[in-house]
Amino acid sequence: xxxxxxxxxxAICLCIVAPGFAQQGHPLTGTWSGDxxxxxxxxxxxxxxxxxxxxxxxGLINPGPDSIPIASVFVDPATWTVRIEANGKEHITAEGxxxxxxxxxxxxxxxxxxxxxxxxxxxxxx
Amino acid sequence: MTNRFLVGLSVVGAVxxxxxxxxxxxxxxxxxxxxxxxxxxxxxxxxxxNVKDSAGTVTNWALEFGNPLDLEKDGWxxxxxxxxxxxxxxxxxxxEPGSRAxxxxxxxxxxxxxxxxxxxxxxxxxxxxEPAPRWPDGRVRLGPPPGKKGYWTTPxxxxxxxxxxxxxxxxxxxxxxxxSDADRVAPFQPWxxxxxxxxxRTLLKDDPLTRCLPPGGPRQxxxxxxxxxxxxxxxxRILVLLxxxxxxxxxxxxxxxxxxxxDEVVRGYYGNSVGKWEKDTLVVDVIGFNEHFWFANGGLPHxxxxxxxxxxxxxDLGTLKYEVTVDDPRTYTRPWTGGWNIQWVPNEEIQEYFCxxxxxxxxxxxxxxxxxxx
Lengths: 126, 374
Hints:
Chain A is mainly beta.
């Protein structure tokens, strides 16, 4: 009972706190999570951390011991299309479109190429 | 985009800025019915009217009619309208389907009396041309003269625009009449211009202020209900008490301490402020902003690199000149400067106002909850 109450309190706090951290600066800055895969059933979880330094968007894919540095990010503000390149064990190219620009939980979804594997991806800003 | 909106309803001198994201000023609605409820709540007062259509179906309309503090200044009281009064209402309907509108005028059916009839209070302008009050050492006071009351309100501009831009027509909320003027508002980087235009095109619907988040930066001096300086000279600081938004305060340190390192200060809505006097002008250096708010009406973007230099000058009792230089190289291609004048309201204090009150009052009634909490 106590645990249930605690979890309820945590859930309420998260609901209240989350909107307070809406990020209104560069739309790509922040932590994004989602997945990619070649089929709808075989998915791989991914986390992006991106930051705008005034000239370039820099960052990492899957931060931690196996992180992959992002090599380049191209953004077209006219269409909000995004192209992200990274060099891990295999070259990664993610091309997508930023949607729900004004929303805290905005998304990028599009095509994902990793080595010779092609698929799709979708990430949402945490 | 010409004339795509522009609303700031003027009703016998009282300006009730209605939300362009919520109401569609291109349409009008006329309603006749009986008042069923009056919600005298911040930041928007509502009354509710049962309206019967030709088929006899009764619909309860929610009618927003301004901010209680502004309404009281213009002669309204919570007893101006009573439950059971038959009224005719002219208003602007909400954009979304439903029975909600912004009331432009209200007429009592029984007497034909039109509400919103009181003339707004105006300060005695002659007295306000008196010299600025000073401390015994000759320094200008930013607050009232000794033994008096007063606060600052009514900025001469409702949006922040680069001084080099020339005239740009905007609404009270900072919405451009012509979106093509965006280029002149500020020297945007391409991404920032696209974000600004998006916010303008979507009628500022994502404004954090609608969720009662604080108006940091110059926007704190654009808010309805004004602000007040409390100069604590013995403590080497000036408090800025804000009457609008969420009744916040800000501290400007004037004890000679250096500004912190940008990478080390705790980031907040009001930043880290260090001020010094240059003759009769208070110059305030501000860094350490977070990215959770819009720093001016109209949706100007910024990043954590935002650095403001504010200049406050009081040339006479009734005038405060506010000038701010915006330096955010991640958002703008060069530093730029804008500002406005702010009027002194003598012999009055800031009134109590809480942004959340309306949310609390209306969420349970499903009136504006959707607008405020997405």
